[in-house]
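Is it possible to get an amino acid sequence alongside its tokenized fold?
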Amino acid sequence: MLRVFISCPMNGLSDEEIIKTRTDIKDKLSKTLASDFEIVDSFFTNFHVSGNSHIDPAMYYLGMAICKMANSDIAVFAKGWDKARGCKMEYEIARAYGKTIVIL
């Protein structure tokens, strides 16, 4: 079974908008991939920075996402990835480490 990491812009979007983007990607993949797959969940909602002003939430989430990408076979990049700081970093890491990359 293929493990699929999804990179999509999140800054300024609601949780519902992000979830819809991810669901749309999953639907597209189910129509185009020849084998079974599972999505490696990299949408985090459980981090709170209150009381710790030294933590940059975006950098923290990026680090967690990279850990998830390490456990995937394919990295899929959603529309607008090339304009989102975190997605561009995820792309460069996927490329540098030889992940199969799919751009939607």
